Amino acid sequence: MAGGLTLLAGRPVGWAAVSALALALPLGILGAGYGLLTGQGVIRLGVFAPAGLYWLAGFPLARLAQETAAGLTLTGEVVLAGGVAGFLGYQAMVSLGFAIGFVWLHERLMPYWLLRLRGHNPYARELLDRYVAHAEVLRSAAGRRRTRKGARR
Amino acid sequence: MDTSKTPATTETGHVSAAPGQEERVWRAGGLEPMPVRTLPDAPPSVHILGPTVFLVALGVGMGESYMWPRLVLLFGPEIRWLFLIGVTLQAVVMLEMARYAMATGESIFSGAARVFKPLMWFFFVVAILVYIWPGHLSAGAAAFEQITGIPWMVTAVIGLILVGVVFSLAKVIYNLLENVLSILIGTLVLGTAVVAAMVGTWDDVVSTITGMFHFGYFPQEAMTAAWFPVIVGACAFAGPSGMQQMWYTLHLRDSGAGMGAHIPTIRGLRHAGEEEAMPSRGFMFDTDDPREMAKWRGWRRWVTFDALLLFWGITMLVTISFTVIAQAAVRQDPAVRTAVQGDDREVALSAMADSVSSAGSSVLGTIFLGFIALIGLNATLGLFDSFSRGQADMTHNFVPGAKKVKLSHLYAGFLWGVIIFGILILLFGPADGPSGILDTLAFLSTFAMGAYCVTLLLVNNRMLPKPIRPRWWTNLIIGFGAFFYLGMLFYSLFAFGVVVG
């Protein structure tokens, strides 16, 4: 998105590309890590808290990596607003918004992507099965709760 | 439950009772009674996706991205206590709108008609007066022009036609729109967080958040003819404005929430032939049955989660991000403060974008304008669908002879009507509406918010069975809402002679 907008705007590409790449790379790696953890069942699907915690740690680290890489490449020095602690604290606070947007997009887009991949990718098939199983578990758990409530009356 | 044994009319195939059984009905107001049907099971209360996306898409607009950041720059973050009240009030309104829609499968417009039919016609007329003007397209299209150089008029006209074509081709419009808006809102939330992370500081976010708790803060300069109407407008635009909450009841119904599961969904024009017969009224569940009431509580938990986490939380997050971006912009370039003091929204947004660029990277300013364009796209998609949905619902149910036409055809008629009118106005007329009636339109938009609070009180307390009526404290909050919107509106009118800025 950033790259496309930059080109449309006719802005200098070099500076923006370094900055965008320095953020996109760690975020991409962390996003892939999130996918792996959901595939292994470490992170539960369909709920926010695990994703919130994951990005609470991950997002500040990704931003730190970006500031360090972009700073060293472009100006030869790294300047963090508020010092390392202040910088990381602020990024951790903002990570909440990032996590909600991420989960919303992930839950909406990932199943469709997995549907496309499942034919030739066993990991994608496995993760898609996890999504389906998760939906079924939630549905049956809600059914059991209602049955127990009915029985108590 | 106060049901009678009077057989309900069975003119549609959906509502007939089992052979040999008399139909139990719930009588509400002077309109056709609602047959009693089973309430579907509620989904798990903790969820991530749902019909709230429509309200978020409509609610996160110019109020969050421009009006409130502007007020923060002018009066300090302490002014945000009014935003907190506005958005919290809207979350409660959302819960109460959902109460009637989920209990009956009817829109709030039908509920209003059950109380007093002219009340519904009032909203029908206000919707046409306020929402046929394509002015809401201009901010997003202007931002897109700044990014690409494509004249905003061209973008706006192409956007209008695309919206019409896409909605006409969709099989079920709700499903398509929920998917598209979810992706757009997700991108907006994630993107604004990234930009705020790059340009803001710890102090910005702390002052933005703590500012929300300075209840009663009101600087002297805000009590002037120049700024009080602007604050009234910003309060009305904190979250969904105008009639957007009323339209949410239609989205809730189409999502199959509560008794909405018994009502067919609206289809695109191309698939209108597949539409099932639309019942002429909603349904009620048996509120004397403990199992049904348990399911009802499940639905209430589900919508409460929607209102508090998804609606309130996301609206808050986006506006905090935009406020942080605005504060960073002023820190970088104090001239931005002068720009936002003026009335020209495009100039102010452009100044903020330039300043954000210099604070972070040149691309950040472009992305900032991209978000404004994205917000414009969300608003256009949401408003056109909602307007057509609401008008089609009222026409189908209350205009004599309209039931002969499928609801999907009525929807398409209103949709293409507003699109063609919009294109003509963009090309030949004033986009926001004739200048002579601008004040009236602004007045009506805010007045409708006070009016729907009163309508909600009447509908939920008189048209629903006692076990599912709102509690006293909820009524108190909705009553406060009516006082809040109407009080500020009329105070501004009588004290300063200006309605909404």
What does this structure look like?
The complex is a heterodimer of chains A (153) and B (501). In chain A, 83% of the residues lie in helices and 0% in strands. Chain A is built from five helices and no strands. In chain A, helix 2 packs antiparallel against helix 3, helix 3 crosses helix 4 and helix 4 packs across helix 5. Chain A is elongated and about 50 Å long. With 501 residues, chain B is an all-alpha fold. Chain B has one domain: Sodium/glucose cotransporter. Chain B has 18 helices and three strands. Chain B has a three-stranded antiparallel beta sheet, with no helix packed on it. In chain B, a hairpin with a 7-residue loop joins strand 2 and strand 3. The N and C termini of chain B lie far apart (47 Å). The N terminus of chain B is likely disordered.
In terms of quaternary structure, the protein is heterodimer
Strand content of chain B: under 5%
Helical/strand content category of chain A: mainly alpha
- Helix and strand pattern of chain A: HHHHH
How many domains would you count in the coordinates of chain B?
Answer: 1
List SSEs of chain B in N-to-C order.
Answer: EEEHHHHHHHHHHHHHHHHHH
Radius of gyration of chain B: 23 Å
Q: What is the first-to-last residue Cα distance of chain B?
A: 47 Å
Structurally, the number of domains of chain A stands at 1
Radius of gyration of chain A: 20 Å
Instruction: Count the beta strands of chain B.
Output: 3
